[in-house]
Amino acid sequence: MMGISFHRLVSKIRNRIKRGCAGRKEHILIIHHRMGDGGVTYSLVTFLELFDRSLYEIDLMLLYTDHSPRIDLVPKDVGLYWRGSKHVHRYYDFVVINMIDYFWYLGHIKRYGKSLLWLHGDPRLRDKTDIKRMVQGFDMVFAPSRDIVEYLEMLELSPEIIYRPHTINYLEIQAKSRLEISDPFDDHYFNIVTVARLSEEKGIDRAVMVMKTLLRRNSRTHWYIIGEGPDRERLEGMIRQSGLDDKIILTGFRQNPFPYLKMCDIAIYLSRHEAFCLSIGEALALGKAVICTDFAGARDQIVDGYNGFIIRNDDSTIVDELIDIIENKDKLQGVSENAKNSISQKKTSERLRIL
Q: Which of 149, 167, 185 finishes a domain?
């Protein structure tokens, strides 16, 4: 049976509020490692922005003081504290640990009602015994995709497993996509965009394989990779050695990637593994067809052949499958028209009422 639904959980906790907490805001503590660049941070920021402030007071505690370049994105009405702060010894109705690697910090919080672990990575890559040990102290676990829910339920864990895909802010994406950028695309080229951290699991090296084949076919294509990460030096070497310096553009980090997504012809994500790819929803919100590999969460957002394409997650087949789609412009056009309709403005911009 699929994990308890988000709406059922809302109903349960609303009833509890009516019985004994009417008129009092609930206090939530979210524990996060650091405000770095990447999808985990941006998912957290959207989560914080969309909470209904008439119902909740929210505190955010960061475990590490270094490498937090995006700390300015924390909403001003969210209490911001560092690990060890005396403030967090108060009582909290909910404590949320953001990422399984930091499960251990729950033991440092002494006074709280319910505890929740929010998953971001794919737990199927971990040892099953480790997963059981990490989650056993929690009341609830947020799983961002149906694939992850099914896997966790198979393990027969003690916490409630709650299916909750990551949220995007539709209205903010639309507004930011209209801002001008200093390096617009060349309209004479077919422009591909990938928004991703430059790390091995994101499969950016696969873009080099695909572009080498496109170059041999004299394809007028540019591929923009928007993001930063530990794999940059290796990727720069691959691009240079393949003679693709003017074809694959590593833009580096962009705080606002949405104008690039709006201008591109298609968004492509070739990750080796994910729990849920937030950037897919952002591309769909801007009416862009998406091609992605078959990782966890892909089918939660993409209906293959309708609003995008899901290809096999296999290095030996990716090039042929991807090029077959890219070169079929009629097929791409029809899918692009369906993309924006697959993201609901109301669903992605409404205020979150409870965890």
A: 167
